[in-house]
Amino acid sequence: MFSSTVSHPLVWISQRQAVNPAAILWIFRGTHGELEITFSAGKQVFLNERELSSEGRALLLPAEGQVRAI
């Protein structure tokens, strides 16, 4: 019997990095544009806001005056 799995699409957050948004556990945003993204499996990715694609910016950065919970 086949097992069914839910496949989440990858989002290109930078030119070289694609992520599964469902696997993001925590995002730390530093004062100088640094981003530290922690995934549910414990892997971490370090980026700067300047490196983000438009999709990455929409996913990872909150709009003005908002706190975003993923």
Q: Please report the number of helical segments.
A: 1
Give the overall form.
globular
The total count of strands amounts to: 5
Based on secondary structure, the structural category is mainly beta
Work out the strand percent.
25-35%
Mean pLDDT: 85
Instruction: Indicate the low-confidence ranges by residue numbers.
Output: none
Series of secondary-structure elements, N-terminal to C-terminal: EEEEEH
Binned, the helix content reads 10-25%
Please tell me about this protein's structure.
The protein is built from 1 helix and 5 strands; from the N terminus they run βββββα. By secondary structure, it is mostly beta strands. The protein has one domain. The strands form 2 sheets. The chain has a 3-stranded antiparallel sheet, with no helix packed on it. A two-stranded antiparallel sheet has the order 1-2. A hairpin with a 4-residue loop joins strand 4 (34-39) and strand 5 (44-48). It starts with 10 loop residues before the first strand and ends in a 10-residue tail after the last helix. The model has no long low-confidence stretch (mean pLDDT 85).
